[in-house]
Structure formats: C-alpha cells, structure tokens
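Notes from hallway chat w/ T.B., transcribed later so I don't forget. T.B. wanted the structure written out for a chain they're using in a teaching module, and asked if we could keep both sequence and structure tokens in one place. Agreed to drop them here.
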Amino acid sequence: MNNLGELLQKLGVARISAMAVVAVMLVGFFAFIIIRSTTPQLAPLYTNLEFEDSAAIIAELSAMGTPHELRAEGATILVPRDQITAIRMSLAESGLPRRGQVGYEIFDQQSTLGATSFVQNVNHIRALEGELARTISALARVQSARVHLVLPERELFRRDVKEPSASIVLTVRGQLSSGEIRAIQHLVASAIEGLVPNAVSIVDSSGTLLASGTGSDEMSVTAQAIEERTLGVENRLRTRLEELLSSIVGAGRARVQVSAELDLDRQTRTSEVFDPESQVVRSAQTRETGDQSQGPGNLGEVTVANELPGASEQGTEGAGGTSHTSSTLEETFNYEISRTTETTVTEAGAVKRLSVAVVVDGIYTYDAAGNADYAPRSQAELDQINALVRSAMGFDAERGDQVEVVNMQFAQRPDVTAGTEAPGLFDFTREDLMRFVEMAVTLLIGLALVLFVMRPLVRKVLAPESQPLALPPAAAVPATELEDDAESDAVAAAKAREAMTEAWLEQAKTLGESQVKTLRMVGDLVEENPKQASMIIRDWLSEAA
C-alpha cells in the first residue's frame, strides 16, 4: 500500500485524471462498438399494411418474443433481417397479413350447418374477391388491389342470361403497360366461369381508367394486338441492331431507331382450278338394239307351218313376201376431270415496310495529357455498317425498306466503361452500402479518438519529470575517504577528485540527454497538437497573471 501511495503521489493529480479519462473513453468506445455489432440489423417485414393487419402482426410478434419496430405510423414493421423468412412463414400459417381481404379461409371459420344458400353464395363471392385481390397484389408493379364481382344467377324459365362482370381498383407503383393490363383482365376472366376479359374494368387509385370493360369489342382488341405486335417488332429489331453495332463501334456509341409498318388487312383467298388434260374414265355404258319387219303376204296369218322351225323362211320365200332387219349400238363414257381447290388466309400483322435510322459516334484519340480528340469515321466503314444493318434487318427493296447510317458526334462522349457489368462479388444492395458507410464512419471516429485524444494523454502520463542538475558539493565526499587520503600525497587526492569529477560529468551528460529527449517529445506534441499547446500556454499565462 505504501508503494501504491508513493506511486500515486509521484504521478500527481493531473496524470491520474488523464489516465482515468483515457480509461473511461476507451471503455465507452469499445462498449459502443460491441453494442452496435451485437444489435440485430432490422429490415422491413411488411410495408403499406392496414391497421387491422398491423395490430394482428404486432400481437403475434409480441407473443413470439421477436424484437420489432414500427414506422410510417404503423404501416411498416421492422424485424431482424436474419429472421424475416421464418417470421413470414409463421405469420402465413396464421393467415397474416390479410390486407383487408378474406379468402377461402372464410369457410374454415364458419359452420355451414344451418347456413342458407344466400349466405353461402355471399361467402363464395367474398372468397373469390379476396383470393383474386391477393393474386393480383403479388404482381411486381401492383401495390394493392380490390376486386368486385357481379355473378348473376340463372333464373328458372328465363331464356336470357346475364353475363358476369368484374371491376378492379389498383394501387400501382409507376405505370402499367397495356400488356400488364390485359394480363390482369385475362387472369380474372380465367378464374370466373363465363366471364370474358373485355367485361373486366380496371381503375387505378388516381381515378384513371385503364380498361373500360364495356363488353366484347373485337376492333379494340385487334387494334391493341396490332399495336403490341408493332412495338414488339420494332423493339426486337432495335435491340438486335444495337447489340450488333455495340460490338463494332463500342457500347453506347450507336443509336438505332426502327419504324415498322404492318399490314393490317386480313385476307382470305379461295381458288379452284380444273385441268382438262387430266381426264379419267369414270364409267362406260354400251347399248345395242335390233329391229326386223316382213312384207304383207302373210301378215296376220298364224298356221302350223309358220310355227315349225324354218317354216317362216320357207313360207316367205314361197309366198314371195319382203322382210327388213335393222340394229342400233349406243356407247356412253363418263370422264372425271381433275380439280384443285386452294384456300389461302393471310393474317393481319405482316411486315409491310421497315425504316431504320442509325447514328454512329466518331473515333476518339487521347494525347499524353488525356485530352480527347474527335475524328469522324471513314466512308468505307460507314458502308460496311450499312451493309451489316441491311443484312441484319432483312432489307427488301421491293417493299420499300429504307436504311440511313449517319456519322455524327454525340453531345456527351460515352464512357468507355459503359455496358460493363460488375462481377457478382461486388453486387451490393442499398442496405449493404449503408452498413459499409456506417462501419467506415465508426472506424474514422475511433482513429480520430486514438490519434488526437488518447495518444497525447498517454504521452503526457508517460513523460518523465525534469530534475534540476546540481553539482555534488565537496561535503558530499565521505569522511572516511578524506581521512584515508589525508595521509596520502597530493597526487592521490588529485586522482580521487578527478575520478569524482568524471563520474559527475557522466551523470550530468545522462541527465542532459534525458532532458533533450523530453524537450523533443514536447516539441513533437506541440507540432502534432498546436491548438492544445496554444491553449496550455494561454492557461499558464493566465495563471501567472
């Protein structure tokens, strides 16, 4: 304890206070780092929640003991990032979030015993609307959806049947394309029996009519299909040409615009051709008839002699009568002539004419200072690019296709690194970047604390105290040595004094070196911390005053 007390007394109050301040700052800094690193990183579990869903989810999270945080007035719930998947699966098991709709689980919560048909039909419609709303909300651009169905019942002894219809209200992120709107219409129509896509009306949250749903309009459907086909042909051809040119002139140094004109007429042509040279006998018929007549000598007489064989000839000759015999031969041939029937249907949407415009940037060269110098491309290179574009687009002069390739300097020089994709190792999300920034700021604060606060305080604590340099008096010489030397001669006394002087000089030299080191250390502290040094000098001056 005495040694500890002597050490504390030797250090002084200033050094002990500095050591305490350094210790407290070190403990606080490392405690902050440990708490920050051990605190779970929160991420959104669900966003844009209804108040009912938010309250139910908070109750479930509290029951599970999961740390959570509310933001956006309860519409967003944050939970630890590494537990999001497990929490979502657990909430899905409980049917959360419902997002204001009730699906087929409505039949699990109610007993069908004693329920009327009207209640069952209403529950069925509610379940359909809820399931369709959930399915539509799963799309990327759709934030929320609300579905209303009109399913008319078939009345007895009634021939006219009313067709079902549907209306949808969407809250979207950005703007839906015509293809996405038609996809939602077909999705709903396929889930309802007897519902056609054109009977589904769609409105967004701002009141914009996206689909009228006025019934079957074949002309509007055909126009939409033609428009989508035109855009598809133009985009596909433009993408193909830009990929081809980017490998030649560089990424971002070529711009391509394609205008496609499609044939909107639908033609049906039927032709029937007969070939007279190709004749085949289908059937043949032969008919032969004969006729025989006699003179008036024995006409009408029937005798035994006439009935005997050969009697007619003999009687005729003997009677001197006349006879007449005639025969007719008819042949009928039926021929089958070959016939060819051809029906050709030309659907609308065939490419009628293409117009392609290509703008190519020039060539940039760099001097020693890094300045860019622009030079246009040669005509031979432009002709080669023109030939490649014609071959890639399927140029046809008979249908009136046009291709223009122009070399012009772009307003902004494309970056040479444009189009390069970073490797997958460096594909960081926004949360990762914010985490890295937070770690970098914490590291800079720690380094500043160590260099500008802790290091000067530690140096001040460890700096040795300066001691005055004093020459040893003659009385400091032991008396025994003087008594022993009294009997010696003057030479011995001189040697003794010379030895003591050398020892004193060595001690003074060592003390001077330590003082020089101390002065150098003080100079370094002043150079590193000029502000603190000036403040200390001001304090000294104020105390002296």
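Follow-up for T.B.: Residues 416-423, 466-483 have pLDDT under 50 and may be disordered. Might be a good example for the class.
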